[in-house]
Amino acid sequence: MPPSPLEEDIFPSTPGKIKIERTHHYTMNRSFHRCFTSTTTMFLWALLLIALTASYLSIQSFVDTGTRFLHHPIPRDHVIIGGPHWEKKIRASAQVHRVHGLSVLVTGAAGFVGSHVALALKKRGDGVVGLDNFNDYYDPSLKHARRALLDGHNIFVVEGDINDKRILVKLFDVVPFTHVMHLAAQAGVRYAIENPHSYVHSNIAGLVKLLEQCKSADPQPAVVWASSSSVYGLNDKAPFSESDRTDRPASLYAATKKAGEAITHSYNHIYGLAITGLRFFTVYGPWGRPDMAYFSFTQNIRKGKRITIYRGKNGVDLARDFTYIDDIVKGCVAALDTSGKSTGSGGKKKGAAPYRIYNLGNTQPVTVPTMVSILEKYLKKKAKKHVVTMLGNGDVPFTHANISLARRELGYNPTTDLPTGLRKFVKWYESYYVEDHGKPVKY
Ligand SMILES: NC(=O)c1ccc[n+]([C@@H]2O[C@H](COP(=O)([O-])OP(=O)(O)OC[C@H]3O[C@@H](n4cnc5c(N)ncnc54)[C@H](O)[C@@H]3O)[C@@H](O)[C@H]2O)c1
């Protein structure tokens, strides 16, 4: 069917071609009308295009704020938040199942320490919601496996970045969290040489975004967060006490953790947020971090690959105060239970709130070669060792925690020695990975 004259006018068969040189009045009118309608149409199309471009750019910048420094951007569909289904899942996850139970937002919940703490809280009846950006600093499939584990215990882990204000606002809109257990961070000392910005993104900018949200929340939650033994830097007075110098960091990672202690102090001072910083000492155990020496040594010894062992410049072995994950979890939970309350609301301070810092270590430093020999025993295989003198890569020669303060105020009492903890780690490792033609695969 041929188009009606009107249809033809509105949708010219040759778009953009408008005859304007006809002198007949009617024709002029018609031309003018055609011209006008075409211009209007073009104008409307242009408006639509501008609107689409603007909304695309705003989505892009929203995604960017959260992912610019990530190794692996979050797929768009994972960024979409909100909606009744999402809120229902958040509420169910945050449901408290005991009298005086806590309602805790755990950042970094798909991480090593975060997944253990989230489970421990849920198991005793607290409400827990997780937040993690699942970046690929190390194999994200391990983070997804931890998430599946948490999912099985009705803990919902939101996929998002702590820099993403929209997600934080939404989470606090849905749940009046009593506590935030902040464990999301860019961890690792040596990686800072490769990707310094990821440390600033997560450990500085992300921390500030989170604290901004906490200070504005009504009620304000109490915040417990992970600092690190690395803040002791070049301190050589052993064991390390909370009152020792922490102004000589040996790595950018340590510097960002030290900055975190100063930043949290200012939020405590200005806004009345109750803050507890925990200086963890080399945490290890099942579901651990593949970038850490005990984990990568296990992988390489099993595969018959060479391992590199660093030694101090004067030929002294490096030593670490290895702390088993279950002991760290007990310390985190005790810190939450004793955190005290934030005093402010809606961004206004109403009185002084607690500001605390504790070492969470094991107080028994073990040298790296001793750790390797324990692994060799459990793996029933000799390591091919390559010993090299430590470069200036951010590692410190030893760590050793004084935990008297945490013992006294948190009732913290680590009970797992390195041989016991590594036996549990190797058992987990062997159940999680099976050898397939020399390649570890998950089953
Ligand atoms: N494991 C240790 O030996 C140790 C020692 C000292 C301090 N710490 C600190 O303890 C905390 C937990 O460490 P871990 O060993 O479980 O590390 P992890 O890397 O396994 O866990 C951190 C989690 O945070 C997530 N994350 C990172 N940046 C994020 C961001 N911007 N937004 C949202 N999620 C983000 C990561 O995806 C990861 O799952 C970290 O703050 C770390 O610096 C750990």
Provide structural commentary:
45% of the residues lie in helices and 15% in strands. The protein is α/β, with parallel strands linked by helices and 443 residues long. The protein has a domain at 1-67. The strands form 5 sheets. It has a 7-stranded parallel β-sheet, sandwiched between helices. A two-stranded parallel ribbon has the order 7-10. The chain has a two-stranded parallel ribbon with strand order 8-13. The longest helix is centred in the first third of the chain and has 43 residues, at 25-67. The termini are far apart. 42% of the residues are buried. The model is unreliable at 1-37 and 48-79 (pLDDT under 50). The structure holds nicotinamide-adenine-dinucleotide.
